[in-house]
């Protein structure tokens, strides 16, 4: 699994898809591929290695069409090679899919289909899905491609963000989400699909994030969203993403991590803009203002997260306990979702995630909500799943983070934790004078950050001497 990009509209899809794959390279991958619908046929090229190597093959084998899908793969089932790369085509060559996630019952599906003499060519779990869709589609003359796609997904156990096209129904693209994020980009007479917004922001900022268990059908002029399990139509407006091309390009820096380190002065300013009350020594966090009494009166407060966000959560615990005198437990989301934690209507769960799509953190939120807890989110991406599924929350406004090692997103999360702790503390009688000192320090911290970054040569020398 790794990166997904799809397109339907009136442009030549090939250069758009290849550029999209390059925007997705930051996610890491071992192979890449592309498939385009042309004259009632699917033309596909796949290559292990870099997107640039795929691009050479595409240039040598001209392909053109206004509907297409492309994928960067990081191997989970089957070794990284040309055959196991995505897209995967069914045995007739008429259906193609790209897939992020894991099909847990792929061996069972494969066995059933192989007993019907349906040939498999790869070692992947993803091929089981496309062959299943194909078998259902061609076994039922009255079933549409969408109907076959939906039926197949009901038989699948596992996680997926999947996009599919069919040569017999070339006017649409289908996609579905269960455990792996997908975003729909809305253009003028065109639509985009991607695993995150970075490959589509060049063309549109109006997007719809699919929720768990949803299918979307795209034509050049329209979209429809429905539930996988019930076919119930879902009505949801688009959101405007806070991202620009400049934010997802390296500019003058050698790599994204270095760029994002140097952006921290500005991202911290954006995180705290309009939220510091220097006169009263407190902070204004409008997204959760109505829920502060519930936090203050809770009998149990959890902060849950994964990865770097978990480290921000640990700092948040120290801050909240110090300033607000509220006991806090920090839980790694992948553990919390499975253990028998004490959760009831007097519990507050604060979930922290840069992307707002972290699967284990989302599962922890859903568990807590099902047991009646108040759920709050701290995330970076407007309209993301965590932002939608929590009762309220705080955006960090750090901008897109492309580098794998978190930098500006982490410091923005710590800044939010500090403001949250101070806001709760002032409600519980934390000294106003100390509050003013702290808000003043926060107000000037961007300059302190810049002072440190201006001394990057000394920092570089320490790193070289140490490592």
UniProtKB/TrEMBL annotation:
SIS domain ranges (all copies): 291-430
Subcellular location: Cytoplasm
Keyword Transmembrane helix carried by entry: no
Main location: cytoplasm
CC per GO annotation: cytosol
GO terms of biological process kind: fructose 6-phosphate metabolic process; protein N-linked glycosylation; UDP-N-acetylglucosamine metabolic process
One Gene Ontology term of the molecular function aspect: glutamine-fructose-6-phosphate transaminase (isomerizing) activity
Pfam family name, one: GATase_6
Keywords: Aminotransferase, Cytoplasm, Glutamine amidotransferase, Repeat, Transferase
EC number: 2.6.1.16
Domain Glutamine amidotransferase type-2, chain residue ranges per copy: 2-221
Record carries keyword Repeat: yes
Enzymatic reactions: D-fructose 6-phosphate + L-glutamine = D-glucosamine 6-phosphate + L-glutamate
Broadest EC class assigned to this enzyme: transferase
Protein name: Glutamine--fructose-6-phosphate aminotransferase [isomerizing]
